[in-house]
């Protein structure tokens, strides 16, 4: 990459509004870049108004005189970035959408661009795949790194450029652990109850044939926030509506798990994850227990959770959390859990 382009890339990710000449020189540390080539690149950026001399700092006394400090004109940098994105759009495969980068930080563009180039080359050579394969296999084919999609934000990039839903990628997650009620498989509306803990799952299993729910799903903590994406593959129901309910511990982590799951299911299925309020309210009639004082706060999740309860219930929940207490799911015994599930009218 030529010196001017390297400087531009560096300045686009530079956070401060002023930059020292020595900081610009550091861009080329360890690279064979002659002084006159570097000076020419800096002076070109001066002439284009991207670098503006800080008058009070003066200039070097060399034959090619550079300023000791510059103001970085971010607006001019943005113009150059937009031109670069526009040029890329003209050359990219038509399925690759780059419009989102006009509103993102330049650092996003710089980080994503090497991968976008590889994806472009893949599409031009192979077109869209016709067979779904696991994420690591597709990841390796696209960018030569089997972990890129699952561990290095490749999924987010593919979503940004409009390709995630087109590349037939099978998510790699633990299988969704669930029991199915065959009597509900022909329903137009399919209700799913997700419970955080294994004890509660086992207790409710006996009531599944008696309730208007298609599945009882074992969450297993944060595992459910990934495995839930596999529901359409493990239970391929068509032309139906899904309604999701969740019951977990009333503690900071349990609330955070529900909040994360809610956001992801909303994105995947277009449906929220409702709190199974009859279970939660029954738990709140008991006394909380101590033992969760080391959990970190999840303020946004807790605020979202609390808004589903009455003021009196909110006070009780907040008091328990502040005291390092919690309401475990196991606070409700099997008979009580099953009765609540059987005799509650589950409507949205």
Automatic annotation (TrEMBL):
Domain of life according to the entry: Bacteria
Domain Wadjet protein JetD C-terminal stretches: 171-265
Pfam families in UniProt: JetD_C
Name this polypeptide is given: Wadjet protein JetD C-terminal domain-containing protein
Natural source organism: Paenibacillus sp. SYP-B3998
Biological classification of the source: Bacteria, Bacillati, Bacillota, Bacilli, Bacillales
């Amino acid at each position: 990459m030529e010196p001017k382009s390297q400087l531009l890339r560096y300045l686009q990710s530079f956070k401060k509004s002023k930059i020292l000449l020595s900081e610009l020189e550091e861009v080329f540390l360890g690279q064979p870049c002659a002084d006159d080539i570097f000076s020419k690149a800096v002076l070109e950026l001066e002439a284009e108004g991207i670098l503006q001399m800080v008058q009070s700092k003066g200039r070097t006394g060399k034959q090619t005189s550079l300023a000791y400090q510059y103001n970085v004109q971010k607006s001019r940098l943005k113009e150059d970035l937009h031109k670069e994105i526009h040029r890329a759009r003209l050359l990219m495969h038509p399925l690759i959408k780059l419009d989102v980068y006009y509103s993102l930080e330049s650092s996003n563009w710089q980080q994503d661009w090497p991968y976008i180039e590889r994806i472009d080359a893949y599409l031009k050579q192979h077109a869209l795949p016709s067979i779904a394969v696991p994420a690591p296999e597709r990841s390796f084919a696209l960018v030569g790194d089997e972990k890129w999609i699952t561990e290095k934000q490749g999924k987010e990039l593919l979503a940004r450029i409009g390709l995630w839903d087109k590349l037939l990628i099978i998510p790699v997650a633990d299988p969704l652990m669930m029991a199915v009620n065959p009597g509900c498989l022909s329903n137009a509306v399919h209700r799913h109850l997700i419970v955080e803990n294994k004890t509660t799952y086992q207790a409710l299993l006996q009531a599944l044939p008696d309730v208007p729910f298609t599945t009882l799903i074992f969450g297993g903590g944060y595992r459910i926030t990934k495995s839930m994406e596999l529901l359409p593959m493990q239970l391929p129901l068509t032309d139906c509506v899904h309604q999701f309910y969740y019951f977990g511990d009333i503690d900071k982590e349990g609330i955070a798990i529900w909040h994360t799951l809610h956001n992801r299911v909303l994105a995947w299925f277009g449906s929220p994850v409702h709190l199974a309020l009859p279970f939660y309210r029954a738990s709140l009639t008991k006394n909380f227990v101590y033992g969760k004082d080391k959990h970190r706060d999840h303020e946004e999740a807790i605020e979202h959770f609390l808004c589903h309860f009455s003021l009196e219930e909110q006070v009780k929940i907040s008091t328990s959390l502040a005291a390092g207490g919690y309401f475990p799911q196991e606070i409700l015994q099997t008979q009580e859990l099953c009765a609540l599930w059987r005799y509650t009218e589950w409507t949205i």
